[in-house]
Amino acid sequence: MRHHGQMHARPGVGVCPVPMNSEPTDSEHSNREHSAWGYLPPTSFRARRSALSNAQRETWDRLWPRLGMQAPSHTQAAEPTPREPLDTKTWFGREAPLVLEIGCGSGTSTLAMAQDEPNIDVIAVEIYRRGLAQLLCAIDSAGVENIRLIRGNALDVLQHLIGPESLTGVRVFFPDPWPKARHHKRRLLQPATVALIADRLLPGGVLHAATDHPGYAEHIATVGDAEPRLVRVDPGSEALPISVVRPTTKYESKAHEAGSAVADYVWKKRGQVTQSGDQNAP
Ligand SMILES: C[S@@+](CC[C@H](N)C(=O)[O-])C[C@H]1O[C@@H](n2cnc3c(N)ncnc32)[C@H](O)[C@@H]1O
């Protein structure tokens, strides 16, 4: 499947939440230092205001039990494979290619891309409860059936809920850039994170990352290119199993207004899946 054309942001979703209490402390870094994957940042996110409006609370109470779940904590972070991967077939009620979106914010891209690809199931992971509530409201209004939500750290989700070679795609759109040098270790996309993502992708599966921060863009390109199981692809000239056409979020619009260039990177996991499910080397 190849995807072309421009998508547009939908009103009412897409605000990247305003950070509160954004100064991290070094003591928060200890837990993941010795993960099976090497250094995984424990807190790539910031604490935020998370109060819900009455309407959001009503929608949350009604839909979360069916569409949402809380991720386990990082206490078992040293384990390389999940004890009991999530039963996504039961959760979605069907068997379909699965995409994990990390840090969906309030879900503009999640909703638009899921609507564009009703044959693909999308799990949106986010720490920020109000962002998930905004996405739930948008799902409710649009009647979209192929999105599920997980609240928690995406690294816990990847480690403990997602089995090896089970994802057709991973999306990381505008991860927090942590621009100060002393905070770079908080950046989500580190070599160990990319190795974990590569492990969870099916052969032929896609990692799509986007950022408006030049320094982080360079870092993302370096760690992605250094992962031996991934090969960088030009989405304009390569058939991919999922869309890489993103809508423009409010967050991205602000970056454009500030004169920042947006960089998109797409990697494909080496190997291919035949129709019978056998894997072949490239
Ligand atoms: C800069 S915002 C971008 C939001 C959205 N992707 C967009 O393009 O508008 C980054 C988001 O990633 C979330 N985030 C950062 N690290 C995360 C992690 N380890 N697990 C889950 N969410 C995370 C933050 O809470 C925040 O909402």
From TrEMBL:
Keywords: Methyltransferase, S-adenosyl-L-methionine, Transferase, tRNA processing. S-adenosyl-L-methionine binds at residues 101, 126, 153, 176. Pathway: tRNA modification; N(7)-methylguanine-tRNA biosynthesis. InterPro entries: SAM-dependent_MTases_sf, tRNA_(Gua-N-7)_MeTrfase_Trmb, tRNA_methyltr_TrmB_bact. It holds the Pfam family Methyltransf_4. Gene3D superfamilies: Vaccinia Virus protein VP39. GO terms for molecular function: tRNA (guanine(46)-N7)-methyltransferase activity. Residues 1-39 are annotated as: Disordered. GO terms for cellular component: tRNA methyltransferase complex. Substrate binds at residues 180, 212, 249-252. Its EC number is 2.1.1.33. Residues 26-35 have a biased composition (Basic and acidic residues). It catalyses: guanosine(46) in tRNA + S-adenosyl-L-methionine = N(7)-methylguanosine(46) in tRNA + S-adenosyl-L-homocysteine. Catalyzes the formation of N(7)-methylguanine at position 46 (m7G46) in tRNA. NCBIfam families: tRNA (guanosine(46)-N7)-methyltransferase TrmB. Belongs to the class I-like SAM-binding methyltransferase superfamily. TrmB family. This is tRNA (guanine-N(7)-)-methyltransferase. It comes from Mycobacterium intermedium.
